[in-house]
Design brief:
65% of the residues lie in helices and 0% in strands. With 94 residues, it is an all-alpha fold.
């Protein structure tokens, strides 16, 4: 399974909606990202911001499980969606 960039953005929006509805994790995300609540609406159409939301959720397996269980996704889907978004390119230093 792979995601098109558009499908990845849609998945990222689901992640943002899930995160915004989570009273425990939302303040943690805001603190870690430096974003404010108003930024969420302004940046919701930015694929790089949505990628950061997925990066945040993937920091903890329990968060991935909770998110995926709530939206009915497979546990590997956040990673697959993230790989279809900006900034996922592997850097080769040689």
């Amino acid at each position: 399974m792979s995601f098109s960039p558009e499908a990845a953005e849609t998945f990222g929006l689901k992640a943002l909606a899930w995160l915004a509805s989570n009273d425990e994790l939302m303040p943690v995300f805001l603190g870690a990202s430096g974003a404010a609540v108003d930024d969420l609406k302004a940046q919701a159409s930015d694929p790089a911001f949505l990628a950061s939301v997925l990066d945040f959720i993937m920091m903890d397996d329990a968060w991935v499980i909770a998110f995926c269980d709530e939206i009915g996704a497979k546990y590997e889907e956040p990673m697959l969606a993230r790989h279809a978004m900006p900034g996922s390119e592997q850097v080769h230093w040689t």
